[in-house]
C-alpha cells in the first residue's frame, strides 16, 4: 500500500515540476469574420435596373445588369446581364455573387442569377436559376457555399388547383445544381433574411406579421414558434460568432436573439432609433451602425446611431448628428450649388474594414427637384465627425429619374473597398457610382451605370441604368 502511495506522490511531484514557470492562460478565440471577409474585397459589385416601369400594362422592363468596379484602378472591369428587375444581391463565395430578380412582367418567371468571378473580373456567362412565377422574390442570403435562401413573399404552392392560395415562403436554392428545392412557410410580407456565419441557423423578418421566423438549416426544422416583436421587423443582422441576431423594428427598437439556446431567447431594447430602416454590422469592431432620419429633429434629422454589440446585449446608441454642407462647398457647375440647402435624409452607411471610420450617406431634394447627396466621415474611435469631411456628391435630376427610383428599397447604397482606400455611393436617380478617396475624403471619379433601353434624353444618348443595390465584391 505504501508503495502505491509513494508512487502517487512521485507522479504528482513530476506533474508539478513539468508545469514550473508556466502560467495557464485561457485561449481566446476571436470572433470569426462573416464570410467572405470584407478585408479581402478587391472590388465592389453594383446591380442596376434597366427601365422598369410598373405603370405600363404590361409593366415594361428589360434585363438589368451587374458591374464590377476594381478598387485599385477606379474602373469598371466587368459587366454582364442579369434578370428582370434585380433588387438584391449577396456574395456567396470568394468567386460567386447571387442576384435576385423580381420580374415585374407577368409573363416572365422570376429568377436568381449566379455570377462567377475570376479575381475582380466577371467570368463566363451568368447562370439563371428559375424561381416560381409571381412569387416576387425580394431578398437573398447565404453563408454556405452550395445553398442560398430566397424570400418568396407571394409564393403559390399549387397554381393549377389553388391559384389564389398564397403562402409566403423562403425558397431553398441549390447553387451547385442550379435548382429551387424545398420551400419553408414563413409569416406575412417577409422583407429580410439572415443566415448565421456558421451556416446553421436562418432568420426571416416578417414585416406583415410582426414576427421573426427561425429555422435550423441542417434539417430546416423550426427553432421555435414565430417570435413576436413589439413592432414590425425591417432588417436583420447576425453577429460574427453566430451567437446573437439583431432585429431592427419599425418603432426603432433593436431586438436581440440569443441563439446559444435550443429556442432563441428574445430581448428588446429600452431605447429606440426613430426613422431607421436598416443597419450595417461592423465585423471588426462588433458595432452596429444604424442610419436614421428622426422626424422630431427638424434642423438636423440625419443621424447615425452607433451601438456596441460585443456584449450580451447592445449598448445604448451613441447618436452622431449630421448637418448639410453649405452650398458653397459644392463644385462649379453643380446645380445644387444654385439652390437653398435643406435638412438631410440619412439612407446608407459603410464601415472601413480597417475599423478607423464609418461613412454616412445622405441626401436632400432642392427646390429644383435635384437630388443632392453628401457623404460624411465619422471617426469610430470617438464617434465624432472627422473635421471638414462632409463630401457633397454628384447631383441627380428627379425629372430624369424613372419610376423605379421612387419605388426601390435601396435608392442610395454604399460599400467600402477591402483595403479601406475607397468608399462608394451608388445613386439610383443619378445612374452612377461615386468613388471617394478615403485618404483625402474627396470624390475622385464618377462611374456611370451601363446604358439603359429608355428613350434618349439628349444627343441621342440613352440614359444610364439605375443602381438599386451595391455590395463589396470578390
Structural commentary:
With 474 residues, this protein is mainly β. It contains 2 helices and 34 strands. Strand 2 and strand 3 form a beta hairpin. About 6% of the residues have low confidence.
What's the helix and strand layout?
Blueprint: H1 2-18, E1 43-53, E2 60-70, E3 75-84, E4 86-93, E5 96-101, E6 111-118, E7 121-130, E8 140-141, E9 147-152, E10 169-174, E11 179-185, E12 190-195, E13 201-206, E14 211-216, E15 227-228, E16 233-238, E17 244-249, E18 254-258, E19 265-268, E20 280-282, E21 287-293, E22 302-308, E23 318-321, E24 345-351, E25 357-365, E26 370-379, E27 384-385, E28 391-392, E29 396-397, H2 404-407, E30 412-416, E31 422-427, E32 432-437, E33 442-448, E34 466-472
Antiparallel strand pairs: 1-2, 1-34, 2-3, 4-5, 5-6, 6-7, 8-9, 9-10, 10-11, 12-13, 13-14, 14-15, 16-17, 17-18, 18-19, 20-21, 21-22, 22-23, 24-25, 25-26, 26-27, 26-28, 26-29, 30-31, 31-32, 32-33
Instruction: State Rg.
Output: 24 Å
Largest sheet: 6 strands, antiparallel
Instruction: Give the mean pLDDT.
Output: 88
What structural category characterises the helix and strand content?
mainly beta
Question: Uncertain runs with pLDDT below 50, 5 residues or more?
Answer: 7-34
- Relative helix content: under 10%
Name the shape in a single word. globular
Q: Please report the distance between the alpha carbons of the first and last residues.
A: 69 Å
Helix segment tally: 2
Secondary structure tally: strands: 34
Strand percentage: 35-45%
Amino acid at each position: 500500500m505504501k508503495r502505491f502511495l509513494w508512487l502517487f506522490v512521485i507522479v504528482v511531484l513530476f506533474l508539478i515540476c513539468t508545469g514550473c514557470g508556466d502560467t495557464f492562460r485561457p485561449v481566446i478565440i476571436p470572433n470569426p469574420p462573416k464570410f467572405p471577409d470584407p478585408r479581402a474585397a478587391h472590388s465592389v459589385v453594383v446591380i442596376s435596373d434597366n427601365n422598369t416601369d410598373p405603370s405600363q400594362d404590361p409593366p415594361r422592363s428589360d434585363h438589368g445588369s451587374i458591374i464590377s468596379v476594381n478598387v485599385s484602378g477606379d474602373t469598371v472591369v466587368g459587366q454582364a446581364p442579369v434578370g428582370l428587375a434585380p433588387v438584391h444581391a449577396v456574395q456567396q463565395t470568394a468567386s460567386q455573387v447571387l442576384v435576385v430578380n423580381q420580374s415585374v412582367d407577368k409573363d416572365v418567371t422570376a429568377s436568381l442569377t449566379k455570377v462567377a468571378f475570376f479575381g475582380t473580373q466577371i467570368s463566363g456567362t451568368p447562370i439563371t436559376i428559375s424561381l416560381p412565377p409571381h412569387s416576387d422574390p425580394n431578398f437573398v442570403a447565404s453563408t454556405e457555399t452550395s445553398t442560398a435562401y430566397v424570400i418568396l413573399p407571394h409564393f403559390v404552392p399549387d397554381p393549377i388547383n389553388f391559384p389564389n392560395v398564397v403562402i409566403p415562403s423562403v425558397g431553398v436554392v441549390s447553387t451547385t445544381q442550379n435548382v429551387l428545392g424545398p420551400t419553408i412557410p414563413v409569416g406575412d410580407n417577409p422583407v429580410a433574411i439572415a443566415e448565421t456565419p456558421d451556416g446553421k441557423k436562418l432568420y426571416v423578418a416578417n414585416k406583415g406579421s410582426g414576427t421573426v421566423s427561425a429555422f435550423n438549416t441542417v434539417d430546416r426544422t423550426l427553432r421555435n414558434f414565430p417570435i413576436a416583436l413589439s413592432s414590425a421587423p425591417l432588417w436583420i443582422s447576425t453577429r460574427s460568432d453566430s451567437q446573437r441576431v439583431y432585429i431592427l423594428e419599425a418603432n426603432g427598437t433593436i431586438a436581440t436573439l440569443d441563439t446559444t439556446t435550443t429556442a432563441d431567447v428574445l430581448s428588446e431594447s429600452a431605447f429606440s432609433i426613430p426613422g431607421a430602416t436598416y443597419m450595417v454590422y461592423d465585423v471588426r469592431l462588433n458595432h452596429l451602425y444604424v442610419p436614421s432620419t428622426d422626424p422630431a429633429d427638424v434642423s438636423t434629422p440625419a443621424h447615425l446611431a452607433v451601438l456596441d454589440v460585443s456584449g450580451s446585449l447592445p449598448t445604448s446608441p451613441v447618436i452622431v448628428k449630421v448637418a448639410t454642407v453649405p452650398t458653397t462647398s459644392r463644385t462649379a457647375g453643380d446645380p445644387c450649388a444654385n439652390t437653398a440647402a435643406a435638412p438631410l435624409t440619412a439612407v446608407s452607411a459603410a464601415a472601413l474594414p480597417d475599423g478607423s471610420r464609418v461613412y454616412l450617406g445622405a441626401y436632400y431634394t432642392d427646390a429644383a427637384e435635384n437630388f443632392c447627396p453628401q457623404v460624411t466621415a465619422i471617426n469610430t474611435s470617438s464617434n465624432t465627425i472627422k473635421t471638414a469631411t462632409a463630401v457633397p456628391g454628384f447631383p441627380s435630376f428627379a425629372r430624369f429619374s424613372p419610376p423605379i427610383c421612387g419605388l426601390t428599397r435601396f435608392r442610395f447604397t454604399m460599400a467600402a473597398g477591402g483595403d479601406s482606400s475607397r468608399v462608394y455611393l451608388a445613386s439610383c436617380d443619378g445612374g452612377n457610382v461615386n468613388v471617394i478617396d478615403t485618404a483625402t475624403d474627396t470624390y475622385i471619379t464618377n462611374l456611370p451605370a451601363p446604358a439603359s433601353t429608355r428613350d434618349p434624353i439628349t444627343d441621342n444618348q440613352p440614359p444610364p441604368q439605375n443602381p438599386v443595390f451595391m455590395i463589396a465584391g470578390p
